[in-house]
């Protein structure tokens, strides 16, 4: 908890970013196919709204509930002047069967994938698990996205073979990675389920950073980075501050650093379509906006990255995935 709060108190964490305005700093996206998870609300919906303004070929919106996704698509289309092709992909990241069907639906509809934004996530949930038996936050935020990426990876790699390609995978992480328990606990699901919900969330966010870095190492033709969106002024963080009177007191100052949902989408938009490819350090972790944290231990540890990747692959193999 102390290291989490320190990430905001230290002024150095807010030095070195770039100026970014999605209206004018996102280049023309003609011909680009984009897939984003959790696109029906919050940061995901805002991200799609901004992308839709810049002429992409097609956007696929991954979400659990079709009615909510349809409502979001209609809202986005009514908010912009240009016509844009946005399609719903059913996707429940706690269900391997749903992920498989979602990936199959995407692969059947698209011959390419230029930008994959792994945006969906859960936070501070009560004890629970996915159908793989993984702790619910790690299983949703990490394992679910790992499996989805694995299943659409051929599309990413084929697109990356094209001349002057610029294929990117952006994983939404969080400064909450500072709440993670030790690495061995992260890989032991029984131990992980026994730590508090904030530590379990931290484990999932540390895993996001590790995954993005390892993806870049294994597939250097792709640009893969992780991003922290900032502290967004929604109810997402409420449960952390409500655990105890002490934690509530400790989290009140963090509200001073809060951002709107629109601002919260800036860092992922910058990484996905705003920054020049040459400006991105492949495998790195960025805080808003475009501030590369080169010394992040999860982004730089090849050992932890490899061990998490191999562990996740083994877990999927047990389920014949």
From TrEMBL:
NADP as UniProt keyword: yes
PANTHER family named among the record's database cross-references: RETINOL DEHYDROGENASE, WW DOMAIN-CONTAINING OXIDOREDUCTASE
Keyword vocabulary terms for this entry: NADP, Oxidoreductase
Taxonomic lineage from the root: Eukaryota, Fungi, Dikarya, Ascomycota, Pezizomycotina
InterPro entries (UniProt xref): NAD(P)-bd_dom_sf, SDR_fam
Protein name: Short-chain dehydrogenase/reductase SDR
UniProt GO molecular function: oxidoreductase activity
Pfam families: adh_short (PF00106)
Family: Belongs to the short-chain dehydrogenases/reductases (SDR) family.
Organism the protein comes from: Penicillium angulare
């Amino acid at each position: 908890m102390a290291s989490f709060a320190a990430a905001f108190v230290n002024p150095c964490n807010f030095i070195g970013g770039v100026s970014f305005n999605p209206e004018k700093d996102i280049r023309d996206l003609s011909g680009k196919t984009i897939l984003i998870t959790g696109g029906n609300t919050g940061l995901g919906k805002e991200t799609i709204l901004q992308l839709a303004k810049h002429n992409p070929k097609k956007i696929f919106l991954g979400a659990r509930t079709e009615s909510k996704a349809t409502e979001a698509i209609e809202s986005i289309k009514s908010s912009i002047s240009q016509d844009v092709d946005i399609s719903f992909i059913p996707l429940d990241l706690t269900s391997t069967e749903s992920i498989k069907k979602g990936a199959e639906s995407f692969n059947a509809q698209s011959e390419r994938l230029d930008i994959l934004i792994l945006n969906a996530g859960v936070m501070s949930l009560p004890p629970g698990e996915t159908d793989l038996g993984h702790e619910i936050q790690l299983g949703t935020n990490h394992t679910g996205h790992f499996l989805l990426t694995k299943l659409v990876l051929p599309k990413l790699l084929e697109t990356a073979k094209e001349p002057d390609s610029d294929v990117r995978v952006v994983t939404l992480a969080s400064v909450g990675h500072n709440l993670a328990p030790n690495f061995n606990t992260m890989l032991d699901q029984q131990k992980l389920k026994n730590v508090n919900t904030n530590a379990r969330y931290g484990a999932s966010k540390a895993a996001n950073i590790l995954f993005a870095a390892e993806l870049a190492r294994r597939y250097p033709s792709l640009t893969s980075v992780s991003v922290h969106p900032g502290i967004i002024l929604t109810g997402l963080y409420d449960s952390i501050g409500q655990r105890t009177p002490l934690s509530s007191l400790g989290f009140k100052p963090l509200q001073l650093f809060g951002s709107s949902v629109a601002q919260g989408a800036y860092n992922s938009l910058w990484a996905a379509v705003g920054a020049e490819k040459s400006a991105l350090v492949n495998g790195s972790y960025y805080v808003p906006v475009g501030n590369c944290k080169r010394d992040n231990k999860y982004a730089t540890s090849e050992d932890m990255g490899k061990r998490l990747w191999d562990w996740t692959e083994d877990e999927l193999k047990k389920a014949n995935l």
